[in-house]
Amino acid sequence: xxxxxxxxxxxxxxxxxxxxxxxxxxxxxxxxxxxxxxxxxxxxxxxxxxxxxxxxxxxxxxxxxxxxxxxxxxxxxxxxxxxxxxxxx
Length: 89
Fold this sequence. Notes:
It contains three helices and no strands.
């Protein structure tokens, strides 16, 4: 797969995973309301949707090349031994 199409497909999978996670989370929260009377199938499907969405997110990140932690993140820069500038003398 070419780099541009892999990036496009990876970003699409990441977006689909994010939508599934948000939808599953919303259904799980709405399931707690007694007025809606969701069936147990919908409740279990919502929890499964969160995990499938996370799996799609990770697969899309791997395919699109976004799986590495960038050095621009504050916590990573300050507390990861590989990124510290002190002590390398």
